[in-house]
Amino acid sequence: MYPEEMVLPMRAELSEAGFQELYTAADVKNAIKAEGTTLVVVNSVCGCAARNARPGAKMSLDGAKKPDHLITVFAGVDKEAVDAAREEMFPFPPSSPSMALFKNGELVHMLERHHIEGRPAELIAENLKDAYAEFC
């Protein structure tokens, strides 16, 4: 587990953009099952992928369509919440960072680490915006 002081600025990057930080399995499952669309960002310390994942997630929200709910859990810190989110992302294997879009509790779009790593934030945002156009 990472020290809270280390992850605080990375948490803030998403929470200041309107993402709700969740820490328990029950909260994650309830949020995902909420009516409408929910974007789940599994945040990460990993500099090679997460440095573009967080800005990409934020940039994706500047379009006409966006998810009804925004939540985030932090890999390597919020174990219970991350495990619950990953359960809902099945059959995709655990990866962080990652992003999943749910509609009425059903997984409809997934960005795994290999879709994020090495890609600019703008490309990540466009991928998400395309999903929002289809599902939101």
From TrEMBL:
<dbReference type="Pfam" id="PF06491">
    <property type="entry name" value="Disulph_isomer"/>
</dbReference>
<comment type="similarity">
    <text>Belongs to the bacilliredoxin family.</text>
</comment>
<protein>
    <submittedName>
        <fullName>BrxA/BrxB family bacilliredoxin</fullName>
    </submittedName>
</protein>
<dbReference type="InterPro" id="IPR009474">
    <property type="entry name" value="BrxB/BrxA"/>
</dbReference>
